[in-house]
Amino acid sequence: MRIELEDLSKTFDSGREVLRGVNFDDEVTSLAIIGPSGGGKSTLLRVIGGLLSPTSGSVRVDGREIVQDERHLTQYRREVGFVFQQGGLFHHMTGRENIIRPLVVVHGMGEKEAGRRADELLARFGLEEDAHKLPAALSGGQRQRIAIARAIAPGPRLLLLDEPTSALDPEYTTEVLDMINELSQSGIRFIIVTHEMGFARRACERAAFLYGGTILEYGSGRELFEAPKTKELGQFLGKMFEWQ
Amino acid sequence: MALFVQKDGRKPSPFAAALNIVLVCAVVTAVFWLSLAIIDIRFDFSFLPDYRKWVLRGFGTTVGVSVMSLVLSLLIGVLAAVGGSSRVLFLRYLCRGYVTVIRGTPLITQIYLFYYIIGTAWGIESRLLSGALILSVFEGAYICEIIRGSYLSIDETQLEAARAVGFNRSQTAKYVILPQMIARTVPALAGQFASIIKDSSLLSMIAVVELSQAFREISTSTFHLFEAYFTLGAIYLCLTLPISFASKRLERRFYYEN
């Protein structure tokens, strides 16, 4: 899937300029966005996912520009899966219901078919026993895995993950990353914002280093992690690996 | 000590709970009994059966007015909450002004104002109807705040997640906002219903013969002032206790966060 970002900028109402002229043009199969906090990673992911409109610039997916009005954006969001850092599951629905409801309401699936689809995914990721619980009764890792299952259930063209493991205890981080890796190997294209450098390096084909609202470096994991070209990336990696 | 003081994070045992509840009742009863003994008053409730018709009629009126006010004030509260966040400035200021003024003034002022001035001017003659309307206007302001509060307490991420799964505005309202708001609003509404029942006693000011007015009349014709008002209090408790119990139950049932 080809993603083109042209001169993308985002300034919030508060006057904070988060993205300043992001340019990108490449085929994406698995991409990690890394960089320091406040560098604009989550904002960029939301713009790509159609959840935020850029102040200026454009996003093209497979040559088609995303029109920034609510009707087109709603349509576009239906083709993309999005996973939040936390709290993305609907609190008042069970895990299974979280998967089924969008399939029925948004994608026009029958109740039974949606149920089958949900059960199939839940079984595949060993979640069937806990899926009848409300999110509050699940572990953080289970919540995120169900959130990922919900995101991929309609068969989206692209999966976007915004720091899906940042709010998790280390023991749960692995189970979530394993799941993303498995999905990736089964052919699901994804972009992940992450602080898990090992995952960015080994499980993602490409990585982008976002710093001060622009992409400072872009390339394969090997290029970025072994031979950073900019001082900023060097310092960032130094900090990330200081205790590893 | 475990019998009297709760340990951190542990529920008191049934025995400790029962023991302490009995103690509370005993102490409260003792204080009242002693007070009565000191001023030498003896209660005599024997007059009550003779007035059961008055009591029943008052009870019916209180329940009727309260139920009607609950429905109407819910409607007013919803409208005021929606209007208060409207982009039409006239509507917004009207609704916010209504809530502020009603919440900031005593019910008794509103009863006199609406009944004697507005009610008279527009020819609303039924005291019962005016009473129910006035009570609804009063309680509507509180219900508006309950609804507004439960809307504001919806987590921003829930709304973002709704957009992310592809819900449009009306789908978001139907599948995310409303269910979550109802879960938060219903227990508080049950609590508000208990307030409506108590507040309805003020309608006696415009001679609506509801429970408290009925008992005022009973007390003046029997001279059993204390007995009449204690009975009145007991009847109100019989109405409000089950409601607050239900409110607590609903709260627990809908409590799905954390």
Which SSEs are present, and which pair or pack?
The complex is a heterodimer of chains A (about 240) and B (about 260).
Chain A: E1 2-11, E2 17-27, E3 30-34, H1 41-48, E4 56-61, E5 64-65, H2 70-77, E6 80-83, H3 95-105, H4 111-124, H5 140-152, E7 158-162, H6 170-185, E8 190-193, H7 197-202, E9 206-211, E10 214-220, H8 221-226, H9 231-241
Parallel strand pairs in A: 3-8, 3-9, 6-7, 7-8
Antiparallel strand pairs in A: 1-2, 1-4, 4-5, 9-10
Chain B: H1 14-39, H2 52-84, H3 89-104, H4 107-121, H5 127-152, H6 156-164, H7 169-199, H8 211-222, H9 225-253
Features:
heterodimer; A: alpha/beta; Rossmann fold; 9 helices; B: mainly alpha; MetI-like fold; 76% helix
Query: Which parts of chain B are unreliable, with pLDDT below 50 for 5 consecutive residues or more?
Result: none
**Could you give the count of β-strands of chain A?**
10
Please trace the helix and strand order of chain A, writing H or E for each element.
EEEHEEHEHHHEHEHEEHH
User: How far do the termini of chain A sit from each other?
Assistant: 34 Å
Distance between the termini of chain B: 31 Å
Q: Return the CATH topology of chain A.
A: Rossmann fold
The number of distinct helices of chain A, counting runs of at least 4 residues, comes to 9
Please tell me how large the radius of gyration of chain A is.
18 Å
- Helix content range of chain A: 25-40%
Q: Do you know the CATH architecture of chain B?
A: Orthogonal Bundle
SSE pattern of chain B: HHHHHHHHH
Structurally, the number of domains of chain A stands at 1
